[in-house]
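Researcher: For the annotation table, I need structure tokens for Phage DNA packaging protein, Nu1 subunit of terminase. Please keep the output clean. Sequence:
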Amino acid sequence: MPKLDGTETKTAFAARVGLTKGRISQLVAEGLPVRGDGRIDVAEGLAWIETNLDPARRYKGGAPTATTRTATLSEAKRLHEIVKVQRARLAFEREQGKLIDADEARRTVFARARAERDAHLAWVQRTAPLLAAELGADPRATFAALDRMMREHLEHLADLPLGSFGDGA
């Protein structure tokens, strides 16, 4: 269950970032921010690790030199640690409800657009006979004209880039 306050024990935070509790204690001594109750604010902790965890101090091999930088084991380990921290940050943001699944968002937007299109076309079907009666026009001709105009309007909207609608506020 996600923590609503965004803090974790050192043990839980260590598990989140793939380090030992002892290593987290060492990092606290080096400046990893800890609250007065001994818990770690996850967002602050992840940011601190990304910014301050020196690859030369993580591994016995030290940081790679300029001549050995490409494809060295220590460089690969450093990149692996960065990826672990980034994954931990994403998992935390997902727990906090700040991230959504892209496929789910696409399905939702598509379903909403389809429902709105269908509602517009149904409006034409409901409105055409009323409009024809009010104007004394042929109901079939009125429906055909409204239907054509609505479909042209919907095609025009479909051709507009998403950014042209603003932020929706």
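Researcher: And a one-line annotation?
Model: Helices lie at 10-17, 21-29, 42-52, 55-58, 73-95, 102-135, 139-159.
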